[in-house]
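When time allows, look over one protein, given below as sequence and tokens. The question is which stretches look regular and which look disordered:
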Amino acid sequence: MAYISTSDVKMIREALKVEFPKYRFSVSKGSGGLSVNVAVVKGPNNLLADIGETWDGAGYQDINHYHTNMYGEHQGFFDKVVRVIKTAPSRQWYDKSDAMIDYFDTAFYMHVSVGKYGKPYEMVA
């Protein structure tokens, strides 16, 4: 059953700080403890100009962590972010889901974004 603890969220936050010292992340536990929400809120690259924005001028974009190849030169960055999310918690991440038979079994769900609603991504030099 999908669940992530507060301590696992903290481990992800700390691992992202170590792996990406030039970036700032917002890492929070999703409602009900089923997911972790990771947003890149500040960094040296103009990620939104390169990958586009969902809403014109909103300052954020959700990232499809299953298809990071859509983000061109930033694919490696997002692959590393997802790897950290999967490996930092104390328990092994897994996904034994099978949508064909409507069976969902994963350690926890993840949501990755550049910027957040109400807090746009900020590029710093």
Q: What stands out?
A: Helices lie at 6-19, 47-51, 75-87. The chain has one domain: 6-123.
